[in-house]
Recover the amino acids of this structure.
């Protein structure tokens, strides 16, 4: 049985309302066969994608899309952080670094950042005018443990730091949160080890499980995190749709079946 924390009543109501505005499968299917980016965006603006696509245009580059989609998720994380009890806000805001885990892993390995990274506010704040990491800024953001290549994999380091930000939840709430962490951790491990042909199926299976769990979590502190995971998967789907059309405008929509699935 999921935990019940009545201090999450406001957060649950606000998050539930936002969940109800997420695109349904029928909304994705309706626009999946439109090939051109401009035409796709025009149709997307007539449905529940409208808030997500209003910053993009037919002239959007791959860099614009990579940065813009991540900014959408960061905005949603900030909104949810404002809904939850104050003691949980740091844990919610810490999820921004999971959303940016790919870039954090580049820093973890000492690699070069993608060109679009400076367009994303939390990443740009870590860099100097030449695009180099400023260690003092990374430390202020709490990222130093994640950037140590000898400390372990980034997802594990992130999860350890996330748990440290929990405000001493009860056993039931901790079980809900741990269950969510295990679910996402198992997905990431299987995703990295699996074949590209199974990637879409794995994402869809995760989303269905998250959807089911979200409805059962109710007033649990884990519910806002499950919602953000759902948003992240939907925005990943948006990213694919945008990049596919921006980079390959004349190619038949090979992924249209997956987009509509």
């Amino acid at each position: 049985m999921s935990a019940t924390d009545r201090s999450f009543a406001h957060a649950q109501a606000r998050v539930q309302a936002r969940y109800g505005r997420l695109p349904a499968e029928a909304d994705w299917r309706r626009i999946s066969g439109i090939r051109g980016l401009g035409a796709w965006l025009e149709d997307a603006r007539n449905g529940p994608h409208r808030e997500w696509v209003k910053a993009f245009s037919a002239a959007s580059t791959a860099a614009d899309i990579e940065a813009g989609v991540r900014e959408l998720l960061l905005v949603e994380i900030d909104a949810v952080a404002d809904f939850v009890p104050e003691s949980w806000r740091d844990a919610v805001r810490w999820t921004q670094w999971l959303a940016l885990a790919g870039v954090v892993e580049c820093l973890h390995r000492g690699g070069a950042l993608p060109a679009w990274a400076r367009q994303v506010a939390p990443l740009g704040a870590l860099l100097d005018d030449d695009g180099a990491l400023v260690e003092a800024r990374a430390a202020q953001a709490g990222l130093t443990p994640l950037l140590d290549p000898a400390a372990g994999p980034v997802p594990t380091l992130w999860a350890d730091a996330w748990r440290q930000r929990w405000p001493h939840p009860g056993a039931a709430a901790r079980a809900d949160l741990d269950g969510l962490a295990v679910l996402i951790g198992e997905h990431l491990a299987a995703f990295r080890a699996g074949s590209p042909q199974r990637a879409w199926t794995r994402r869809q299976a995760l989303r269905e499980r998250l959807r089911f769990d979200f409805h059962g979590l109710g007033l649990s502190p884990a519910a806002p995190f499950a919602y953000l995971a759902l948003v992240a998967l939907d925005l990943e789907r948006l990213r694919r749709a945008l990049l596919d059309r921006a980079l390959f405008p004349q190619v038949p929509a090979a992924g249209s079946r997956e987009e509509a699935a």
Notes: The chain has a mean pLDDT of 91.
